[in-house]
Amino acid sequence: MSVVTPHFFTALLSLSLLSWPLLGEAENQRSKTNSPKVSQKASMGPLIENYGPVFDVPQASFPLNTEQALKTVFDVGASPDDKTSLNRRLESVARYMNMHARAGYSAKQMDIAVVLHGAASWNALSDTAYQQRFGDENPNTALIKALKDQGVSFWLCGQSAGFNGIAAGEVSEQVGFSLSAMTALQQLQSQGYALLP
Length: 197
Known about the structure:
By secondary structure, the protein is an alpha/beta fold. It has six helices and five strands, in the order αβαβααβαβαβ.
């Protein structure tokens, strides 16, 4: 009866580890020669010109129904600690719109709502109110206006506003109030909006 020694397993493992990079390199070469590439540079537009960079994906195989309406609600509760920084969660809304427009959806097919609450409540302030509180203009103002101009609705959680001491007069004219974020999110989903947290 033959006995398999620990040295046999060590040698086998070493051989496997040595060949692994070669297999990986072969796969990389195959991928480079046989598959179409994603665009290597992100670009803006066509709906939101200065925000929401996206990549074109010519090899996408997931079927798109460009006749379908896209009813979407974005749940935005986080915001950068740096009050001079753009909220990238808001920029995701621009990215969503730009990539779908490139894929063949019209702006009218995109029915989008954004619910602001928690730390993102500050994103809803007018430039004047933001300046008074943080010493600088709201870095999200231009993005919110660009999205609003494309039909996006913005709703500020009334409970978050209350807890943060935000008065109605401090809020941008682009943003409306909801009783709460929970209320807005529940009702919008019951109306057929897909939630993107």
